[in-house]
Design a protein that fits this description.
The chain is mainly α. It has nine helices and no strands.
Length: 172
């Protein structure tokens, strides 16, 4: 089979249509890599996970509390900032790995969207103009993966293909 047949020529769809099947892969790789990096960066930054001081999550939360869109979320995080910091970092790593390998992609995308939403409503809510804050853009970037999952080049697709092959092999 030629390369073009593998990306859509065999069914008459053409190269462009074939490549469209892979349109979400770069988004998955970018979001997954970014979230893994962000989580690891938080876990390896001694200032971020410290209880107080410059660069700590406590300092960031106290700095945005009065301008947050959801002040109650900031208050909740301030009850245990170190625990919240570990939870966010762990969540970012889990979401990122899920997106990178395409495993439980819709669930990973939901997690990524919720993390992005919470950061937008707290940390970057008051950024002006709004498009300077990246959390809203990340929230929107997770949406296609939430809707479509990872239909190509993913563990989800491999597992689906394995189930379909298994179903065909069953009698009756």
């Amino acid at each position: 089979m030629s390369m073009t047949a593998g990306v859509g020529m065999a069914d008459g769809g053409g190269l462009r249509a074939g490549l469209a099947h892979f349109a979400l892969v770069p988004l998955r790789l970018f979001l997954g890599g970014t979230f893994v990096y962000a989580g690891l960066d938080k876990l390896t930054d001694p200032d971020f996970l410290s209880g107080s001081g410059p660069g700590s999550l406590t300092a960031v939360l106290e700095g945005v509390r009065q301008t947050a869109g959801a002040e109650w979320m900031v208050d909740l995080a301030l009850r245990n900032p170190e625990g919240f910091g570990y939870a966010i970092a762990g969540g970012e790593i889990a979401v990122g790995l899920g997106a990178l390998v395409g495993l439980l992609t819709r669930l990973a995308a939901l997690g990524g969207a919720l993390i992005s939403l919470s950061l937008w409503l707290t940390v970057t809510w008051s950024t002006e103009p709004y498009y300077y804050g990246n959390d809203l853009a990340y929230l929107m970037a997770w949406t296609p993966l939430l809707l479509a999952g990872a239909p190509r080049l993913s563990l989800d697709a491999a597992l689906r293909g394995g189930r379909h092959r298994h179903d065909r092999d069953l009698p009756g």
